[in-house]
Design a protein that fits this description.
The protein is of the alpha/beta class. The chain has 15 helices and eleven strands. It folds into two domains: 245 residues, Alpha-Beta Barrel (TIM Barrel); 68 residues, Non-ribosomal Peptide Synthetase Peptidyl Carrier Protein, Chain A (Orthogonal Bundle), CATH 1.10.1200. The mean pLDDT is 95.
Length: 325
């Protein structure tokens, strides 16, 4: 599969853009463990042109995480075009446009999934963005606004006509948010359309090696984008690749390796966002990192109550001693 001149090989695995998750330290970790390409947290183009610290900070790219796409969202075309100058300075490998975020504060401004209600506007915006940048442009979107207006085939063809190099499709409508079940058949219908030529990548509920194989072998899609399945489990990419190549399941790492990975992430996160924020945001993911560990609750309480990096690292060392294998 290619995005512009970027060759990602057969059936690439992508890390999805996730707010407060897909930061540079986590993207670097997922690349290390087999993600073929990663995507940033979504970045407000209005924030970029106002030089808002949080938006500009999200443009940071680590050397170890490439290839990487910067994902943007916005509702004003001129602001989106103006932001491209700043984005290009970060030298990403691609620009991804978010036409799928279902959150009310984004949609109410006419951004994200709101575009699904007006495919002509989506096509017009996309074509202008493609025209104003030399970077490959991709799009991430959903099946439609609700179950009565699923228009993803029309949208995908319009995006292709606008010049995008690939389309990532979350198999839910905006109304579903993140509930219910992702409809991979609807994504496959896009790929099967006789006029569809650009790569079609599935997103939504792909949280195991077996599901990645289904996406490739049964649904015939070009790649898989993994979101929530990677939280607390950056190894999911190498597990998927191993299964896709051999049909065999790769064992989850032992506790010592998990602790080493968490420490690596925390040290990078502290350097990137500061100790306080890094410690706070990591608290949400400990339970997933240690999923299946017996009697983990007391250890989790110690981790979430730790106030400094040194305190967290000390608890992690205790866990390693308690579960050496």
């Amino acid at each position: 599969m290619k995005i512009g001149t970027l060759d990602l090989g057969d059936f690439p695995l992508f890390l999805a853009p996730m707010e407060d998750v897909s930061d540079p330290p986590f993207r670097k970790l997922c690349r290390k463990h087999g993600a073929d390409m990663v995507v940033t947290e979504f970045i407000s183009t209005e924030g970029l042109i106002r030089n808002a610290y949080k938006s500009v900070k999200k443009l940071d790219i680590y050397p170890g995480e490439r290839p990487v796409a910067i994902q943007i969202f916005g509702h004003d075309l001129q602001n989106m075009l103006a932001s491209l100058r700043l984005i290009e300075k970060a030298e990403p490998d691609a620009v991804d446009i978010n036409y799928g975020c279902p959150v009310k504060k984004v949609v109410n401004k006419g951004a994200g999934a709101a575009f699904l209600q007006d495919p002509e506007r989506m096509q017009r915006f996309t074509a202008e963005i493609v025209r104003h940048t030399g970077l490959p442009v991709t799009v991430k979107t959903r099946l439609g606004w609700d179950e009565n207006s699923i228009n993803i085939v029309e949208v995908a063809l319009r995006m292709q006509d606008a010049g995008v190099k690939a389309i990532f499709i979350h198999g839910r409508t905006r109304k579903q948010m993140y509930g219910g079940t992702a409809d991979w058949d609807a994504i496959a219908a896009v790929k099967r359309h006789p006029d569809m030529e650009i790569p079609v990548v599935a997103n939504g509920d792909i949280d195991s090696p077996q599901k990645a194989a289904l996406i490739r072998d049964h649904y015939g899609l070009d790649g898989a984008m993994i979101g929530r399945g990677a939280i607390g489990n950056p190894w999911i990419f190498e597990q998927m690749r191993h299964y896709l190549n051999t049909g065999e399941l790769l064992a989850r790492p032992g506790i010592p390796d998990i602790v080493v990975t968490i420490k690596e992430y925390l040290n990078d996160a502290v350097r990137w966002k500061g100790e306080r924020l890094a410690i706070l945001e990591a608290r949400r993911h400990y339970a997933k990192y240690f999923k299946g560990l017996p009697n983990f609750k007391p250890w989790r309480m110690q981790l979430v109550q730790a106030e400094t990096l040194a305190e967290v690292l000390a608890v992690l060392d205790k866990i390693t001693k308690e579960f050496p294998e």
